[in-house]
Structures are given as structure tokens and as C-alpha cells.
Design brief:
It is built from six helices and two strands; from the N terminus they run H-H-H-H-H-E-E-H. By secondary structure, it is mostly helical. The protein has a domain of 98 residues: Tyrosine recombinase, N-terminal domain (DNA polymerase, domain 1, Orthogonal Bundle). A two-stranded antiparallel sheet has the order 1-2. Strand 1 and strand 2 form a beta hairpin. The radius of gyration is 24 Å and the shape is globular.
Length: 154
């Protein structure tokens, strides 16, 4: 095992990354190094950009697959190799499916429930602490529910 591989594995272990993530990152870094036939320690921003273009245009990988390689390279250069260049500028997170993967949705997940078709309160943000399901309301809904299986003819 190379010293670089040992260091990246240790960095991932102390950060409690899952074993599958560790294996994936090591594989991606290895593929990157094999592509240029050089150690990632001697490769820089130009090779990283070139590799991203290669994965996208020549290998025609799906954005999710390129994203895995990008995440691995960001970890390698930012955490393990402590590169002083701006990793975010050199290895940008991909715009995947119309959403920048670095952006975290500030609205809680329940806020989207009222935006569904047929909602009684479109556009209203739902606060989970304000919506209580009492036993009476659950029983009322269950009583009025008609199962599609109950109408089958024998």
C-alpha cells in the first residue's frame, strides 16, 4: 500500500466515513492517477479539470458518477494533501439536475407537503409542531376511507 493511500484511508477513518465511501474514494483516486500515469501528489488543477472533462465528454458518465469522482478528489486535495489552492474553485461541485449540490435547502422538508396538487393550503409552510394528529381525526379519516379492494365482485 502506498503512503498516500494509507494517509487518505486514515483521514477517512478518523472522519468516520462509511467503509463503502472509503472504498469508492480510494477507487476514484486510483482511476484518476492511472489516467495520467502519475501520483495525484504531482498532479494539479489543470489535470483535475481535464479529468472532469474526460469523464463527462469521453466516458459519458452520468452526473451522479462524475459527482463521486469529484467528491473523492475534493477530499484528497483538501483534507489529505492540504493543498493551499482554492479547492472549491478548482474542483467545483457539479450542478446536478438543475440544483447546485453544495446548496442546502433551508426550508424544512414538511414545507413542501402543502405544495402538492390537491393541497388545501398551497404555498403555506407546514410546521410539524402545529399539526397534531389526534386519535379522533385519525379515526374519522379511517371511517370515511373506502378500500378499493372492498368493491371487488366475487
Amino acid at each position: 500500500m502506498t503512503p498516500l493511500r494509507q494517509r487518505i484511508l486514515e483521514d477517512m477513518q478518523v472522519r468516520n466515513l462509511s467503509p463503502l465511501t472509503q472504498a469508492s474514494y480510494v477507487q476514484q483516486v486510483s482511476l484518476f492517477a492511472r489516467h495520467f500515469k502519475k501520483s495525484p501528489e504531482v498532479l494539479g488543477p489543470d489535470e483535475i479539470r481535464s479529468y472532469q472533462v474526460y469523464l463527462t465528454n469521453e466516458k459519458k458518465l452520468a452526473p451522479a458518477s462524475v459527482l463521486i469522482a469529484v467528491a473523492a478528489l475534493r477530499f484528497l486535495y483538501k483534507v489529505t494533501l492540504h493543498k493551499d489552492w482554492s479547492v472549491e474553485d478548482i474542483i467545483p461541485a457539479l450542478n446536478w439536475g438543475g440544483h447546485d449540490v453544495r446548496r442546502v435547502n433551508p426550508r424544512p422538508r414538511t414545507a413542501h407537503l402543502n405544495d402538492m396538487p390537491g393541497s388545501r393550503n398551497p404555498g403555506k409552510v407546514c410546521d410539524s409542531s402545529a399539526t397534531k394528529n389526534t386519535g379522533a381525526s385519525i379515526n374519522r379519516r379511517a371511517k370515511n376511507h373506502v378500500s378499493p379492494l372492498s368493491h371487488r365482485s366475487a
